[in-house]
Amino acid sequence: MYRDMASALWNCCAEKLNVRRQYLVSDPLSREAVLIDTVLDYEPASGSASTATASSILDFIHANGFNVKYILETHAHADHLTAAQYFKQKLGAPVGIGAGISQVQRAFGPTYNLSPSAFTGAFDLLLKDADELKLGSLTCRVLHLPGHTPDHVGYVIGDAVFCGDSIFQPDVGSARCDFPGGDASVLYSSMQRLMGLPSSFRLFVGHDYPPEGRDALCVSTVAEQRAANKHAKTGVSQQEFVHFRSTRDAILGEPRLLHPSLQTNLRGGRLPTEEARLGFKVPM
Questions:
Q1: What is the reported pLDDT for 15?
Q2: What are the strands of the beta sheet with 95-98, ordered from one edge?
């Protein structure tokens, strides 16, 4: 619980070296709440999926009397599976994502031999910049933050911004931009947009990759990012950022859970059921 914001936040990590954050934000008066970037446990070695983590969050929701109004994604993640459909089935709340998801679906559909009909009804809400969602006395405002992916959005609630992968902790910097539709120059603009917010605003990240010697973190202030973001702090030009990001991305391997993640997340969390059995395709 962060005392200076009228909300409750749930954070959890799933991997020792790749800390993934999922958030529950609630209005303390009405108990209306939103879930952001939920995670379905998945073990690729055995091909097994589990709702253990999601179930613990569901128990927390029920124990505290929260009324979840929305299940939101900052983008279609390529490194973990969303639990959005599990929560939708349990809570009845709509699933929302940035309207740019259609571009991502078109880009990756052929890779997995998915026709446009495979994406029908995947999401209930396609959100655009400046859209607003009500949570009791709170307002959740959508920020379009493309660059990492074209569908990427953030959610502003009070003085808190839930950024997904549009920015990382200052000593980590920025996310890759080499997925279809990604663009380093566009990500630079999105990061500068975040750093143009009031200096006291808090930026809650979707991941952390802590360097040796520090614990995983989930939040920094705009002022801290302006002063210390290792890739895009004040004084770093767009040209410098694009050169670094492009050079760095050229040597990165693909995320370990890329294929199962995309086949699930592009469909709003629906697991593949082709040929009457669950299974993921791995392109050659």
A1: 42
A2: 23-26, 32-36, 67-72, 95-98, 125-127
pTM: 0.92
Low-confidence ranges of the chain (pLDDT < 50): 1-8, 10-18, 276
Looking at residue 148, its pLDDT comes to 98
Amino acid at 202: R
Q: Could you give the CA distance from residue 71 to residue 51 in angstroms, rounded to a whole number? A: 16
Q: Pick left, alpha or beta for residue 268 (phi over 0 → left; psi -120 to 50 → alpha; otherwise beta).
A: left
Instruction: Return the HEC string of the chain.
Output: CCCCCCCCCCCCCCCCCCEECCEEEECCCCCEEEEECCCEEEECCCCEEECHHHHHHHHHHHHCCCEEEEEECCCCCCCCECCHHHHHHHHCCCEEEECCHHHHHHHHCHHHCCCHHHHCCCCCEEECCCCEEEECCEEEEEEECCCCCCCCEEEEECCEEEEECCCCCCCCCCCCCCCCCCCHHHHHHHHHHHHCCCCCCEEEECEECCCCCCCCCCEEEHHHHHHHCCCCCCCCCHHHHHHHHHHHHCCCCCCCCHHHHHHHHCCCCCCCCHHHCCCCCCCC
Predicted pLDDT of residue 277: 52
pLDDT at 16: 41
Judge whether 281 and 112 are in contact, CB under 8 Å. Answer: yes
Q: Which CATH number fits domain 19-270: 3.60.15.10, 3.40.50.720, 3.40.1160.10, 3.40.50.150?
A: 3.60.15.10
